[in-house]
Amino acid sequence: MPSAALNIITISFLVFIFISILISVNLMKYIIFNWKSYLNISESMNLSKVVSKLPSTKKYKLISSPNNFYNLTLKSRYPKNIYAAQNVDLHGKGASTGSIDIQDLVSNKIKFCIIGHSEVRSNFGETDLIIQKKTDLCLHNKITPIVCIGEPVDIYKSKKTKNYLKKQINKIFKKSNIYNEVILAYEPLWSIGTGLTPKMSEINDILQFLTKILKNYSFKKIKILYGGSVNLSNIKEILSLQKLDGVLVGSASTKPSFIKYFR
Ligand code: PGA
Fold first, then answer.
1. β 112-115/82-85 pair status
2. Annotation marks residue 187 as catalytic
């Protein structure tokens, strides 16, 4: 075979491989297991073991978020699992009783951190301004923030969700900044832990809205997840939403049967 023809075949093959990798990376759904403070250390170990035994797949990126107290132990026991912290503090090393320092995440290879979860907002009075600072702190330290936003039930009922989310985003992100990888989790507050979820068409509508307004900001990579009462009976339908990059799952993710869904 003439060498020019061989070159064309080789180049086409490489282009094909490159495009396939790009497609699979873009289609990969992020699945975040938020174990909150449901589990003790041995239960967290057992679930981490279940995660570690799943065959590797290009379909899902599995990230476990155990209680912060166990994160480092679990990471050293299951180094191949990906872990996220459930929070981090603005006040780091030094005279800062009770703080979780960002350097502890960095040095222990915890590459993700949930920021602004509604339970942290309500239990610890966390504001959008604090969330903005924590997001910046994470990015500055090469940790991907999983930034949570979502509307309370009265806003949902009065059909003001979009305006509410736009304001949250506007307070957390600056138009003048260039952000590296950010994961945005849309979690309607009335859906978290209640068994209630928006209709698929409503989630889709919000996804389209978020995609549109996020274009006003500079993200090198932005993923949009849904969270709130995701479980084994609705996961398939939710993940079938094409614009959705994944899910953030609370109580259902503490069950091995749910985790095994992602085999
Ligand atoms: P849930 O929690 O799945 O138990 O509703 C979701 C979350 O709080 O992230």
1. parallel
2. yes
Among 29, 69, 97, 94, smallest CA distance to 261 is for: 29
Predicted pLDDT at 98: 84
Token digits of residue 154: 């009265």
The per-residue pLDDT for 19 is 46
Residue among 148, 238, 249 to mutate when testing ligand 1 (max atoms within 8 A of CB): 249
- Rounded Cα–Cα distance for residues 172 and 99 (Å): 22
| 4 within domain boundaries | no
What's the total number of domains in the chain?
1
* Structural domain harbouring 135: 28-260
Ligand 1 closest atom vs CA 185: 9
Nearest Cα residue to 244 out of 253, 235, 252: 235
pTM, 2 dp:
0.91
Q: By alpha-carbon position, which residue is closest to atom 6 of ligand 1?
A: 250
pLDDT tens digits for 191-201? Answer: 999 999 999 99
H/E stretch holding 156 reads: helix 153-157
Is the Cβ atom of 81 under 6 angstroms away from ligand 1? no
- For residue 229, the domain's CATH number is 3.20.20.70
The residue annotated as part of the active site, out of 43, 91, 117, 202, is: 117
Considering the chain, what is the average pLDDT of its residues? 93
pLDDT beyond 70 at 11: no
Confirm if 162 and 206 have CB atoms less than 8 A apart: yes
Mutate to test the pocket of ligand 1, among 192, 194, 197, 259 (most ligand atoms within 8 A of CB): 192
Residue 123 confidence (pLDDT)? 96
Residue 21 scores a pLDDT above 50 = no
